[in-house]
Design goal:
- The protein has 8 helices and 15 strands.
- The protein is an alpha+beta fold.
- The chain folds into 3 domains: 153 residues, no CATH class; 47 residues, no CATH class; 115 residues, SH3 type barrels (Roll), CATH 2.30.30.
- The strands form 5 sheets. A 5-stranded antiparallel sheet has the order 8-7-4-1-9, with no helix packed on it. A 4-stranded antiparallel sheet has the order 14-13-10-15, with no helix packed on it.
- Helix 5 packs antiparallel against helix 6.
- The N terminus is likely disordered.
Length: 341
């Protein structure tokens, strides 16, 4: 590839929410990847191949991402976006059901004139190189000491792809939220204030006596698990896809959580509490997910539920655009009757 072509592939597109883009062809994407199938440490995964050549809209600009591995807050991401209806289906990673939003580097996309057909771009790649074998091989790591398969994906490699922490005081991130269309001014201001409040809560628990902690030093949302000893309760409804449920109240769910806001190992967070009392339809059941810390496939002893359209909206987490799918224990839900008509 010539220097001019390389600048064309990797040049900034300055994308905003709602922009229409075309995912580049396999040869063009291959030309951007290193020997590990990555660009700027971000893997291009087998599940992304099906989108090559498609025209799609930008749903969010991924200029920042929350650290779901070490829980160190927001990190900076460079020249990446999320596309509408482009989630990982796990087909290249052992059937993982996390359904993570895919990250797309701008170098893997192009703008185009909607009124004209896209002209194919000739890209020269080294002989013997092909995209499918490269990304399939990169989807697994060296097996663990017990011989179990370990997977590599965008989620497991996120700390490498976005190593720079994004401090609360970096106001530029909030300006970019508004400029890119990720969030409005009011929503951005609210997100900033929540992040600032949570930071003050952390500091207060370190320097003040417990008697002076506000609301027990809890983060915004003020969740407090009520199970002080023993195992947390469980319950089964046998929910099926399409059934209508109501998410229980915050108090009812807190009664099923321990001090770490866990129910049988599954967390309930403030972002999820925003949906308490709402109704939604069951989208699917989940029992296999990749552990982002280790890359191992985890099989849940107690399958959980995914609800249609219920994802993390980043309201209490600095407007993070990652939009994780929320997992719900059946004990947190109640089946309701279908409305007449």
């Amino acid at each position: 590839m010539t220097t001019t072509e390389n600048r064309t592939v990797s040049g900034a597109l300055d994308l905003r929410v709602g922009d229409l883009v075309e995912v580049r062809g396999k040869a063009e994407i291959l030309a951007t990847l290193d020997g590990k199938g990555e660009l700027d440490e971000l893997p291009f995964m087998p599940e992304m191949l099906v989108f090559c050549g498609r025209r799609m809209r930008v749903s969010k600009v991924a200029h920042k991402v929350c650290d779901n591995i070490a829980r160190t807050g927001l990190h900076r991401m460079e020249r990446a976006v999320h596309l509408t209806d482009a989630r990982c289906d796990g087909s290249g990673h052992g059937g993982c059901q996390n359904a993570c939003q895919l990250f797309w580097k701008e170098a893997w996309l192009r703008r185009f004139d909607p009124d004209e057909p896209a002209a194919p771009v000739a890209v020269q790649v080294p002989a013997g190189r092909a995209l499918l074998p490269l990304v399939v091989a990169a989807a697994t790591m060296t097996p663990g000491t017990d011989g179990t398969v370990r997977y590599s994906c965008q989620a497991t490699e996120m700390k490498r792809a976005a190593p720079a922490a994004l401090p609360v005081r970096d106001l530029g991130q909030y300006v970019q939220d508004v400029r890119t269309g990720n969030a409005g001014v009011a929503a951005t201001l609210r997100a900033f204030l929540v992040v600032l409040f949570n930071r003050l809560q952390v500091v207060s628990t370190r320097v003040l006596p417990r008697s002076l902690w506000f609301r027990g030093g809890t983060r915004w949302g003020f969740l407090q698990g009520q199970v002080r000893s023993g195992r947390t309760p469980t319950g089964e409804l046998g929910l099926r896809t399409g059934e209508l449920v109501r998410i229980k109240s915050k108090a009812e769910i807190e009664a099923t959580l321990n001090g770490d806001l866990l129910n049988r190992g599954m967390g309930f967070d403030p972002e999820m509490s925003r949906f308490c009392g709402r109704t939604a339809r069951v989208q699917r059941r989940v029992d296999r997910v990749i552990d982002e810390k280790t890359g191992r496939m985890l099989t849940m002893k107690y399958p959980c539920i995914v609800l249609d359209g219920v994802v993390c909206e980043g309201v209490f987490s600095g407007s993070c655009p990652r939009a994780f799918v929320s997992f719900w224990r059946e004990i947190w839900l109640e089946r309701i009757e279908e409305p007449v008509g």
